[in-house]
Description:
Number of helices: 3
Mean pLDDT: 90
Number of domains: 1
Radius of gyration: 31 Å
Shape: elongated
Number of strands: 0
Helix content: over 70%
Structural class: mainly alpha
Low-confidence stretches: none
Strand content: under 5%
Amino acid sequence: MISDGLILLAVGMVVVFLFLLLLNLLISSMSHFLRDHALNEEKMLLEAEAEKRRKKNARKQRSGTPAAAEDAGRLTAVISAAIHAHTSR
């Protein structure tokens, strides 16, 4: 009876080990075969991000007011509004 339990234990552990080994091999092989596709996709994403950055910089240069001054003015307005709301309670 105990020997049947030990045999079942060994068979179960071997099955789980083989399943995990197979899973590891499949994931590794997929990673190897899809490496070129992943690199191309990463390159396209980086190019798109760089293009967005270039457009944003061009838009900032065209606007005439620097972004820091614009942010400082907006921050001043927000703080003034908060102080006014707090004092009018």
